[in-house]
């Protein structure tokens, strides 16, 4: 008999009334399956303990024999009941509050199981739960599940209802995982695992049950992504880029440096995707300064030489400016045209630009998000390069497709993230990693100093600038719109301008007009300005190789990854570079974070530490993160399983049998419910 538990309303569980059904809805429980998959988030330990082994203040469960008579004191509606109980060889005084009705059951010589807080000095226990083994035990000797509850739903009621659901339907819980995986990992069968999670026989069984369900959850999640990816590939509607290697080599040879081995590797991966008929969806990650931009340039070159146009989307105008400048330098000898489109390009200029894009006269367009919107059309868009802040969601990509083009997409991340997290967050993408920085780079020395060392820092600034170098001075700006922070930047600028009359000091913040920002950056690029006081608008991408000193005020107000990005603005040329963090953090974690920065300048290590200190939710900025929420798996502690599950899922969908064999019907059914076949992904 094949009954779908997700088609049976939770009302069918005996004991669930219409009003309770409504309450359960609030927790996302509407079917029997929802109820069975409502897993506890921890367990209450009711296993029997020996008094010798427990500590004062522990919450414990013990068994003992009642000695003497109970004493009841009443205070109005409240009451206090005490009774002497012999536990092991100890005489323990058990105290119940407001349980006067127990008095008659506390007969001398009767065995009782007590749960409560142990006060060793006074040899007393304040009882939260008690029961008599001669009446049949419920809890003792077991781990009791604790669910997330609220409203009119109580722990006891929910435990009972889930127990009831297990009695009525537990045997009908179907297996979903393929037998080969169950065998390979010695996984507990699904129905057993679900039962064990709610009613663990012992800790070992509970652990096995969790292991099974974590694997299942991560596997199904990955299966969804991998199936989606595989179907996209099969659709074969992407652009086949035809540029040959000789043409590309010609461009690469024109660059002022040789590519690193890591760059060559990702170049190959990207070109392979671009030449294939499926549309590329690839994430390019690499530490700051690893040379991602030139890889983007090669890909853009390839699309243009294949007769298409390329778009480069960046988060800020400053960055757009910079890229236009450097791409023009690279592409002009090849007769490739590069233009910029941001919100400050308006009127006639904008109209002309859009027309030129539509006619295919502009080969490459660099801009902010504005450039893929509404009235912007291309003659033939072959490649979109974006960075992290503009990561296309699955839905945006299908919007692009519906607009009539299906370009290859290359996403670059400014924040390197641990590989396993990349797999989760960007599971539908292929990942390329630039794993080394160009040779000959001197490491960046990072120092953490207290505010009272500012005088010496000023001395250090003079020394560097006297040697012909340039410096950034960053002050915290958490919100672009925060007036107070802008004022901080202005104050600091005035102070520096007075302190260094010999040098040109500049100011940059988010409230300046685009033209002002542009002029400031131009002066800094050309070394007309030696010291730049700035908010975090220079955080990503800005590339001035002659700048060797990065000073960050109130550094403890920044996230580690952000500090690492800022630090990445120096160490980009041949000169030795320094990063100075000025901070007086109060908390241990704050100090730990500053120390972490001085200990490593490897971006992957930094994000690992950041993740450890903050947890994944905050790391990605909760909601926008796009990270899925799991019922039972934990993204940090279940990292390894995630990677295994991903490989298993990828292997399975690439097997033709998966799409036809009856054995995999339940999994295909699952994918169907997730609408993967309609080209959607539902989180
Ligand atoms: P990021 O990965 O942070 O975007 P960039 O692409 O801005 O790094 O590169 C950092 C600097 O290193 C740039 O000045 C760039 O010209 C230079 N660069 C890139 N690749 C190499 C290389 N293979 N050898 C030497 N310098 C390189
Ligand atoms: Mg392609």
CATH architecture of the domain at 444-600: 3-Layer(aba) Sandwich
- The CATH homologous superfamily of the domain at 444-600 is termed P-loop containing nucleotide triphosphate hydrolases
CATH topology heading of the domain at 444-600? Rossmann fold
Q: Any idea of the CATH class of the domain at 444-600?
A: Alpha Beta
Name the hetero compounds present: adenosine-5'-diphosphate, magnesium ion
Shape: globular
Report the span from N to C terminus.
31 Å
The major β-sheet equals: 7 strands, parallel
Mean pLDDT: 86
The neighbouring-strand order within the major sheet is 10-11-9-12-13-8-14
- Total number of strands: 20
Weakly predicted, low-confidence segments = 619-626
In percent, how helical is the residue content?
Answer: 25-40%
- Based on secondary structure, the structural category is alpha/beta
What is the count of DSSP helices, taking H or I runs of 4+ residues?
23
C-alpha Rg, in Å?
Answer: 32 Å
Q: How much beta, percentage-wise?
A: 15-25%
């Amino acid at each position: 008999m094949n009954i779908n538990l997700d088609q049976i309303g939770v009302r069918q569980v005996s004991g669930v009334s219409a009003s309770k059904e409504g309450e359960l809805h609030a927790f996302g429980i509407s079917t029997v399956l929802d109820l069975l998959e409502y897993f506890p988030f921890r367990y209450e330990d009711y296993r029997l303990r020996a008094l010798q082994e427990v500590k004062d203040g522990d919450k414990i469960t013990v068994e003992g024999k009642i000695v003497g008579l109970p004493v009841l004191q009443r205070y109005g509606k409240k009451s206090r009941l005490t009774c002497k109980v012999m536990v092991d060889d100890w005489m323990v005084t058990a105290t119940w509050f407001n349980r006067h009705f127990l008095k008659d059951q506390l007969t001398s010589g009767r065995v009782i199981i007590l749960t409560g807080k142990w006060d060793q000095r006074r040899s007393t226990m304040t009882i939260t739960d008690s029961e008599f083994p001669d009446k049949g035990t419920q809890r003792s000797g077991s781990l009791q599940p604790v669910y997330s509850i609220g409203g009119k739903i109580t722990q006891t009621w929910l435990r009972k209802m889930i127990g009831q659901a297990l009695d009525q339907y537990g045997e009908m819980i179907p297996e979903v995982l393929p037998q080969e995986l169950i065998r390979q990992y010695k996984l507990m069968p699904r129905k057993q695992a679900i039962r064990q999670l709610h009613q663990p026989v012992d800790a070992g069984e509970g652990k096995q049950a969790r292991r099974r369900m974590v694997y299942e959850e991560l596997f199904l999640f990955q299966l969804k992504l991998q199936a989606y990816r595989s179907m996209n590939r099969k659709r074969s509607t992407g652009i086949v880029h035809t540029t040959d290697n000789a043409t590309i080599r010609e461009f690469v040879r024109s660059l002022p440096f040789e590519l690193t081995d890591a760059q060559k590797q990702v170049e190959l991966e990207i070109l392979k995707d671009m030449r294939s008929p499926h549309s590329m969806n690839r994430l390019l990650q690499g530490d700051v300064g690893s040379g991602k931009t030139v890889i983007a340039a090669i890909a853009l070159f390839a699309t243009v030489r294949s007769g298409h146009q390329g778009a480069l989307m960046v988060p800020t105008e400053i960055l757009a400016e910079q890229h236009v400048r450097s791409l023009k330098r690279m592409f002009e000898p090849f007769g490739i045209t590069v233009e910029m489109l941001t919100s400050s390009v308006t009127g006639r200029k904008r109209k002309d630009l859009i027309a030129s894009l539509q006619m295919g006269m502009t080969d490459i367009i660099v801009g902010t998000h504005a450039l893929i919107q509404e009235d912007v059309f291309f003659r033939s868009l072959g490649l979109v390069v974006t960075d992290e802040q503009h990561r296309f969601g699955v839905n945006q990509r299908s919007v692009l497709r519906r607009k009539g083009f299906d370009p290859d997409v290359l996403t670059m991340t400014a924040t390197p993230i641990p590989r396993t997290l990349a797999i989760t967050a960007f599971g539908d993408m292929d990942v390329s990693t630039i794993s080394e920085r160009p040779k000959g780079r001197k490491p960046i020395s990072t120092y953490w100093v207290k505010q009272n060392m500012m005088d010496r820092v000023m001395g250090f600034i003079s020394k560097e600038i006297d040697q012909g170098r340039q410096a950034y001075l960053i002050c915290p700006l958490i919100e672009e719109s925060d007036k107070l922070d802008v004022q901080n930047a202005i104050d600091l600028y005035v102070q520096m301008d007075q302190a260094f009359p010999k040098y040109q000091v500049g100011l940059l913040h988010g409230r300046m007009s685009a033209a002002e920002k542009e002029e400031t950056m131009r002066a800094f690029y050309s070394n007309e300005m030696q010291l730049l006081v700035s908010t975090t608008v220079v955080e990503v991408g800005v590339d001035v190789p002659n700048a060797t000193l990065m000073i960050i005020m109130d550094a403890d107000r920044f996230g580690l990854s952000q500090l690492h990005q800022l630090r990445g603005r120096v160490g980009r040329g041949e000169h030795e570079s320094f990063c100075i963090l000025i901070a007086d953090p109060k908390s241990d974690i704050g100090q730990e974070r500053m120390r972490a920065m001085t200990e490593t300048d490897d971006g992957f290590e930094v994000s690992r530490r950041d993740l450890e200190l903050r947890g994944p939710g905050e790391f990605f900025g909760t909601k926008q993160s796009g990270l899925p929420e799991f019922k039972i798996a934990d993204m940090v502690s279940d990292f390894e399983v995630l990677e295994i599950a991903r490989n298993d899922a990828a292997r399975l969908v690439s097997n033709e049998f998966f799409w036809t064999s009856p054995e995999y019907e339940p999994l295909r059914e699952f994918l169907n419910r997730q609408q993967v076949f309609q080209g959607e992904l539902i989180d």
